[in-house]
Predict the 3D structure of the following.
Amino acid sequence: MLADAYGVRDYATLAALVGIALTAAKTVGPVTAGLARTVTGTYTAVLLAVPQAVFPLVNALSG
């Protein structure tokens, strides 16, 4: 999909940037969830906050 949207020439650069962003999210997400669990004593705050953070970001990126 990246190659179709931005061209084959820039694919490697874009794929690397997307990979870095995904790796950062995979690192920060669980640490933040664990910290929230430690502070609040429950995962409820995390489960309620994730959709509120993710859905607007997905909408902004998709359109």
